[in-house]
Write a structure and sequence with these properties.
The complex is a heterodimer of chains A (137) and B (121).
Chain A lengths: L1 H42 L8 H6 L3 H23 L2 H7 L2 H14 L5 H21 L3
Helix pairs in contact in A: 1-3, 1-5, 4-6
Chain B lengths: L2 H28 L8 H8 L2 H23 L2 H4 L5 H14 L5 H19 L1
Classes of the chains: A mainly alpha (137), B mainly alpha (121).
């Protein structure tokens, strides 16, 4: 009995640490996307072609900052996976969508139509349904 | 080129990298745990083959994502990332023998509808 209890406490501690990693991952990743979009807006439309000089021409401070944050987000995600199930972490990550929409609307004046919001709501419902099933495991 | 191709390539690469990370972290977890982890141990973690290739794939995915971002709105592109919620459970079923229940199928179907609405927007 005592042993079972210790395991339970360990698990809940892991879960809390995992949530902190997840929160960091979400905030950093949203900031990264907003920076990357801002950076690409300054560059205009790009097509794929190989070559180092081509890749270098993409680089500007926004893109560099965005990529660094993107990398930090990936590290946060890796840490998160050591504490949380993929099946929990992924649904919880949908918070990102809300912040992305808000940011894109506030800073980029994007056309956030009712249809797009409806799509997002439907996606979130789907992810919650996925998560309901995953909680058991 | 249709910018949606950049988008799909990026998302498939990200999904593949998630499987590599999961496998890599699993392999690391099986190794004997050290009391005090130094910087060397974390560097070794990055060079664990699965994690390393996962990171490399993420790099390629980032470039492809930037190309998609240069043509499409962020609020249009970003919801497509939820394709991962479809690719991950299906991949986890085949690779890690994770359960793929009826409820998961319903969730996946609902997400597909949501992505369809985004595609129309």
């Amino acid at each position: 009995m005592a042993n079972t209890k210790t395991v339970a406490i360990d698990k809940s501690q892991d879960f809390k640490i995992g949530l902190v990693y997840l929160a960091i991952d979400i905030l950093v990743s949203v900031a990264a996307q907003l920076l990357l979009k801002r950076g690409m807006m300054e560059l205009g439309e790009f097509e794929f072609s190989g070559g180092v000089s081509y890749l270098l021409s993409m680089i500007n401070p926004m893109i560099i900052g965005g990529l660094i944050l993107y990398a930090c987000g990936t590290v946060g995600w890796l840490l998160c996976l050591t504490k949380l199930d993929l099946s929990f972490a992924y649904p919880a990550g949908t918070m990102q969508y809300l912040f992305i929409f808000l940011g894109a609307w506030m800073w980029f004046d994007e056309n956030i139509s009712l249809l797009r919001i409806a799509g997002l709501v439907v996606i979130c419902i789907g992810v919650v349904v996925l998560a309901l099933d995953m909680k058991k495991s | 080129m249709n910018p949606h191709i950049y988008l799909i390539i990026s998302i498939v690469m990200v999904a593949a990298s998630q499987f590599l990370f999961k496998r890599g972290v699993g392999i690391l977890a099986e190794m004997p745990e050290k009391e005090n982890k130094g910087i060397v141990d974390y560097v070794k973690m990055v060079f664990q083959p699965h994690i390393f290739f996962g990171l490399a794939l993420n790099g390629f995915a980032a470039v492809s994502w930037l190309l998609a971002l240069s043509h499409l709105e962020l609020s249009y592109v970003f919801p497509y990332l939820s394709l991962n919620y479809i690719l991950i459970p299906i991949g986890a079923y085949f690779l890690f023998k994770e359960e793929l229940s009826a409820k998961k199928f319903i969730g996946i179907a609902i997400i597909c509808c949501g992505i369809f609405l985004i595609a129309l927007s």
